[in-house]
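For anyone still unconvinced, we reproduce a single protein record, the chain in one-letter code, the fold tokenised, and leave readers to judge:
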Amino acid sequence: MQENFRQFLDRLRQEGELTDLHQPVDIRHIATLTDQAKTALCFHDVIGYDIPVVSGIIRTRERATLSMGCASYGEIEGKLKHAIDHPIPPKHVQGAPVREVVTVGDDVDLYKLPIPMCSIYDGGPVITAGVVIARDPELGVNSGIYRFIVKEKNLTGIDIVTPNNMRLFAQRAYEAGRPCPISISIGTHPIEIMGSGFRAPLGVDEMAIAGGMRGEPVALAPCETIDLPYIADAEIVLEAEILPTGWTWPEGRFGEFTRLMGGLHWNPLVRIKAIARRRDALYYALHMPWENTWLAAPTRYTAIRQALRTAGVTVKDINVTLGGCAFWHAVISIKKQPGEAKNALLAALSVMDLKHVVVVDDDIDVFDPTDVEWAIATRVQGDRDVLIVTNARGKPLDPSLAPTPPGVVPTTAKIGIDATIPEGVPRERYERIAYAYAGRARIDDYLGGKSDQAGKSAGDDAVAALAQRILEAIDAKPLYYTDIAERFSTYDFQTVARALGHLHASEKLWQDSRGRMCVRGSAFAAKPPGW
């Protein structure tokens, strides 16, 4: 996929998914305007700044799908899985358009960048869309998306309270008493954002995963003040160092993916050593929380599917729900063998930060919350089917956890619900209501004037004769009442009902264990309990 950030914006315009605003706009209004808009927005005249701001570009399912070059949202997972299995290492190039304007040292001034605030309680202007590249001398390269609150003209924090590879790199540098160099690329294609957002194992280069999604290498160019690369197609690049201050400086609050305001975080400080930008740079402000959500969910799908494959479970579908903030809740339908639902729960609960998992049979639509709730209501016994795992690794952003001291990883309880049909319960207990003639009698036809033809009515003699024919049919094979009504549909329904009533009155009519009509005393006839 040979497309850069600007070309993606052009494609959004062509699809009617990006609106250009050319009138002067106060930077303090950008977040709320993006929240209200039906499209992404490009603010060309931000008062006090010479750089336009674009926001909301992956804020909906449709825009996220467009960003990945997919025909449907569900295809993103497959594209990511292919990239994980077939990564393409980045290529290194010399120079890039982002070096058209460069400031270093004392000339660095973050206040000249149009970095907006988002929510009422934010602790300051927040860089939200920076793809961070770092390197550990022993552990390799890591890419990720982290937030930076501007504190001074060349100083920020970095929000790394959650355990991840970047935090590990910073911790090791801190313990060694040295700064941790990072590059921060702003205004990159969503493919690089998604690749860096995938929590890859140590030693796996997330930019190689982004390359696998592109089908070609991501171009990286060298920084000048630190020994690290940045994304060559970026609009703006910050060259920086995480200072060895430890997690000792207050930062926040932040608007979180939970759709809640997080509390005050304690984080290290970051010194910005250089700013490089295109002469006509665009600043990308990733809008919380939804721009963080639509590309986060597919990374969970991929990891869950891999865990279930390892556990030997056959998966039909997965829904990482928006109600669970696309991080914490998953509903999984499986083609179940005895005992596999519990195995599926254990496997899925081991994935990333998943907190609550529901496993259902393959007849349940995981994308229909009513269907899922119905499965829980009709298939679950709490003492048998609810699994609770205590003291599992938690996420500090979980507001239901008690506050923990800086640097302490909280623990959480994880819950799995087995909402599959229990072993030993007959499947016919779960035959859903299905309406007769649903495939033939269509309401639109009747609203358009369709009429049905009346069947024959019959007197008592004819009813007795029809009853005999029905008796012969159900003696050969039990039939549901509706099957009988259809087989003898040359008669009107009242006549068929009278014939069956005749058989019942003469004590010839009975039912089998599934409720089908049969002959009393036949091998098919049901017997009362205890007989």
